[in-house]
Amino acid sequence: xxxxxxxxxxxxxRVAVEKGTDVETKLxxxxxxxxxxxxxxxxxxxxxxxxxxxxPTETVYGLGGNALNPQSSEKIYRAKGRPSDxxxxxxxxxxxxxxxxxxxxxxxAVKLAEKFWPGPLTMIFYKSELVPYETTGGLDTVAVRMxxxxxxxxxxxxxxxxxxAPSANLSGRPSPTMAKYVIxxxxxxxxxxxxxxxxxxxxxxxxxxxxxxxxxxxxxGYITKQMLEDVLVSVExxxxxxxxxxxxxxxxxxxxYRHYAPKGxxxxxxxxxxxxxxxxNAQVDGCRKAHKVTGVITxxxxxxxxxxxxxxxxxxxxxxxxxxxxxxxxxxxxxxxNVEVIYAEAFGTDGLGQAIMNRLLKAAGYKVVQx
Length: 371
Ligand code: TXA
Ligand code: MG
What we know:
Elements: H1 5-16, E1 26-29, H2 37-48, E2 53-55, E3 62-66, H3 70-80, E4 89-91, H4 107-116, E5 121-126, H5 133-136, E6 141-145, H6 150-158, E7 163-164, H7 179-186, E8 192-195, E9 206-209, E10 216-219, H8 225-232, E11 236-237, E12 265-270, H9 273-289, E13 294-298, E14 310-313, H10 320-336, E15 341-345, H11 353-363, E16 368-370
Parallel strand pairs: 1-8, 2-8, 4-6, 5-9, 10-11, 12-15, 12-16, 13-14, 13-15
Antiparallel strand pairs: 2-3, 3-7, 4-7, 5-6, 9-10
Helix pairs in contact: 2-6, 10-11
The chain binds threonylcarbamoyladenylate and magnesium ion.
């Protein structure tokens, strides 16, 4: 494995948070078609009492606590092993509940909510006094999302209306898209996990800052710039979104952490297909001679073209929805398989491709080779 000190620090962090033994974690199964009212009440009561419940949303699994209780937010940071200056998203289930947690609701937010809520869009507002600084990482603003997943909605209502929830992974690992990954990371660390099956989208929500002079995308997601501009005419993008060297600190504090890093050293290779295949194979051959375990992230068409020990497809190149859904699973599997060097084909950056490449580039620490 390439001896970057970054990956060593990561490895130490992993050992320190390896296995949770603090709490007995109750695992329940519930899907959108079969909401069990009694179990839902029990889950809501856990959150009301200050405990944590992991739950499915349409984007990724969330790790939920009472957003209005500072101790709950502190517990979330502890369970994730996450720095507490990284603010949490407050999840609501009903529009009437927005008022109490924000100072004002700009016209742009009303329009975006009409079109995209409930759904995979997070909006940033100035916070009201009701929201503790522990939840917002010390900021005067608060991120709010209304998920469309029914299990998430019912849990939020049952928990009193305001659920702070980051993705339900240990800090530094890919966000969980399946319950088994939540169990892997959170068993023994939180009170309850609701298994609602695989998520639909697979990448975290789009974040739009409405406290900036112009509405600004801080994190790309399923709701694309084009979709937002259909409603708001003009939307800016945070300069640090697709580049590690923009020289600007990202406005979403969480985006500065190497969030989605696999254990192996990941490089993205961009260029014409045959040149990409030839370059990756030459690199892989060199790594194999040095007895390193190699992996490749590719698409269906090229799956059998590579010499790596393990090749994984994220679907068909033109099917971005599938690529979005598969990406984190593939990164997690490479971790489990102890792959040391990973090469990934680059993807297009139109539409949903922008969110896919944003996550892939971050996972690679922005290491890209142009061929
Ligand atoms: O799809 C999602 O958004 C998932 C599900 C569970 O809803 N949640 C999620 O949360 O991705 P998390 O904590 O993993 O990512 C939240 C991001 C971080 O990058 C954080 O810095 C940013 O949102 N954020 C939260 N509050 C903010 C604020 N007030 N200003 C700027 N960025 C904020
Ligand atoms: Mg996260």
